[in-house]
């Protein structure tokens, strides 16, 4: 019997999905640092109902690392047999071994590092962090945004595949950095008198501040977008996330809040429903795209008003999703 030729992890994983009639692996860069003394890329791969992470000093290494770790999981599940399709030996980098918690991974994506950083600044009477976009590069399906966070002389830089992620990651790096030099920063960058006056003095003010900290960084408005191009906001996001219309059709036809959430998850958006008045009931639905999107409805009860609100929302979204691509 001829000896099997060992292949790289990504190739073996791809062949495994074809053999088992599974969807192809989906790779995503969830965090990257470039331009420093040692570059770093964090990849996640989703395949066969599992997720695996890989970290390395190049995209190729981190991608193969993610595929390698996915194969290890699938071997434990009995899905992959290394004897049938051997993989070349893959040695994890030092970064991979040290990465107990990768910024931007699913376990950390819900953390609000910007809010926590602002809380520390308020508690220690330090000026607020300043976030600046340094670059926006790459094709629509693989955009990379680099943001800087600055407090006094402290500066951190991080790159992510969305603006929100890049801001959160640079805030996360600043959190780790500022804790070691708090006494110096308190003297160097004290909060100005006018900022002090805005500090909360009641439970209601604190609740408002907490909500603001929760929301800050979740919506990045594209000031270059013209009103006449508003209708294409969803089409642009579909292109950006490499999504096709057929992936949304079932959920567009279902017209429920759950199906709306599934649609928005695919293009990294969120929605919120607010009740403005009880009788008659007035409700509004907001979607945090880079240009304002809101619908309103009025009815005798919350149930009927919400149903009408969703119906109106889906009427608009169905039109927007079926628009032809921009020229």
Automatic annotation (TrEMBL):
Gene3D superfamilies: 3.30.160.20. The keyword RNA-binding applies. Residues 9-75, 113-179 form the DRBM domain. InterPro entries: dsRBD_dom, RLC_Component. It comes from Psylliodes chrysocephalus. It holds the Pfam family dsrm. GO terms for cellular component: cytoplasm; nucleus; RISC complex; RISC-loading complex. Keywords: RNA-binding. GO terms for molecular function: double-stranded RNA binding; siRNA binding. One of its GO terms (biological process) is regulation of regulatory ncRNA processing. The keyword RNA-binding applies. This is DRBM domain-containing protein. PANTHER family: LOQUACIOUS, ISOFORM B. SUPFAM superfamilies: dsRNA-binding domain-like.
């Amino acid at each position: 019997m001829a000896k099997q030729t060992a292949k790289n992890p990504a190739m073996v994983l791809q062949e495994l999905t074809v053999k088992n009639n599974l969807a192809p692996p989906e790779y995503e860069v969830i965090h990257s640092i470039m331009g420093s003394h040692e570059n770093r890329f964090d990849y996640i791969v989703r395949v066969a109902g599992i997720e695996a992470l890989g970290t390395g000093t190049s995209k190729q290494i981190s991608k193969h690392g993610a595929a390698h770790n996915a194969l290890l999981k699938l071997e434990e599940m009995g899905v992959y047999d290394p004897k049938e399709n051997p993989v070349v030996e893959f040695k994890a980098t030092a970064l991979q071994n040290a990465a107990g918690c990768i910024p931007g991974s699913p376990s950390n994506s819900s953390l609000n590092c910007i809010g926590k950083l602002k809380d520390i600044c308020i508690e220690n009477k330090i000026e607020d962090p300043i976030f600046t976009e340094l670059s926006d590069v790459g094709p629509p399906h693989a955009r990379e945004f680099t943001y800087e966070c600055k407090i006094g002389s402290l500066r951190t830089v991080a790159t992510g595949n969305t603006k929100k992620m890049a801001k959160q990651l640079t805030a996360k790096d600043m959190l780790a950095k500022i804790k070691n030099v708090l006494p110096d920063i308190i003297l160097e960058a004290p909060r100005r008198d006018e900022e002090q006056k805005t500090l909360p003095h009641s439970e209601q003010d604190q609740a408002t501040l907490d909500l603001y900290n929760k929301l800050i960084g979740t919506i990045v408005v594209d000031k270059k977008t013209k009103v006449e191009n508003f209708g294409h906001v969803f089409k642009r996001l579909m292109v950006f996330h490499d999504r096709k219309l057929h992936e949304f059709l079932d959920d567009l036809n279902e017209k429920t809040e759950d199906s709306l959430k599934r649609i928005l998850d695919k293009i990294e958006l969120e929605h919120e429903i607010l009740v403005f008045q009880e009788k008659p009931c007035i409700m509004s639905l907001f979607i945090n795209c880079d240009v304002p999107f809101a619908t309103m409805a009025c009815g005798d009860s919350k149930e009927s008003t919400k149903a009408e609100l969703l119906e109106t929302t889906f009427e608009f979204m169905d039109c927007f999703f079926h628009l032809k691509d921009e020229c």
